[in-house]
Amino acid sequence: MKKRSTLTSIDVGTTKVCTTIADIDDGDGIRVIGVGVTPSQGLHKGLVVNINDAKESIRESVKKAEQTSNYKVESAYIGVTGRHVSSLNNRGVVAVTRNDRLVRPDDLRRVLASAQSVKIPKDRKLLHVIPRSYAIDGQVGVKNPVGMHFTRFWTEVMAAVMICVSTSSLKPCIPTG
User: Fold this and answer.
1) FRET label pair with 17: which of 63, 109, 164, 176, CA 20 to 30 Å apart?
2) 139 and 160 assigned to the same domain
3) pLDDT tens-place string over residues 9-19
């Protein structure tokens, strides 16, 4: 199979597993080149109830997508849903540290890192943080703060969390190598 710059996603659901492989093009975005859909076995309401059955469903979905695309999956983003996935709202705040007081990409990283310090229960794991809005010195609703002047900069985020046992049960089901 050919090696290319690709992006793979696997949606692990209760009724089916869908794998999508897309070719990444520098100028034109992405183009779907392979899809594999199989009935989901070993899952109930988004949770793994039989590792071997779940693993086989995922493996078969990936295999079908590889065959239709003629590409070998090397890594993938896994999508999961269910009652074991939830979200929390949080805020991250940073202060100006330079004389020019301009928001730079590094400040975006700092404010998002600050927002990731959300307190979550020990049985849950932080999946990712999605910025909902930015504010600069009290001006709310800022969409792209890079290049703006600030003394105090913050972001409102949604933090997606998942029960830890869910991720540890799903990991052995994902094909490797």
Assistant:
1) 164
2) yes
3) 998 888 899 99
